Amino acid sequence: MRRIVLLMTVAALVVVSTLFAVSVAGAHKHPTAMAKHPTRTVSIQDFSFKPANITIKRGTNVRWINKDSTAHTATANNGRSFDSGGLGKGQRYTHTFKRTGKKPYHCEIHPHMNGRITVKR
Ligand SMILES: [Cu+2]
Known about the structure:
Elements: H1 2-27, H2 29-35, E1 39-45, E2 48-50, E3 53-57, E4 61-66, E5 75-76, E6 92-96, E7 101-106, E8 114-120
Parallel strand pairs: 1-4, 3-8
Antiparallel strand pairs: 1-2, 4-6, 5-7, 7-8
Copper (II) ion (CU) binds next to loops.
């Protein structure tokens, strides 16, 4: 009998602590939404993406930073997955890659500028 009481006490503690953890996580959900994903940076410099080809895990953020004084874009070749729009000097754009596959992209202003994101599981 004492053993059952002890087990029930332990079970109750587990439930309470789980509820507490969930509520704490929920309260901070918004600010940490980006932080829980790793971020890789691609520089746009000297009219090229550096590095031009990267392989990432699904759910990773890719952040492009334009280091040229000329405006550039990072635009998916399929025209809809992602598009930074014009980035001036020092401006950045971040996209979270949620689906696996090869994602070739280019600069709309300078179509010879090409890059590729490979997203793995
Ligand atoms: Cu460009």
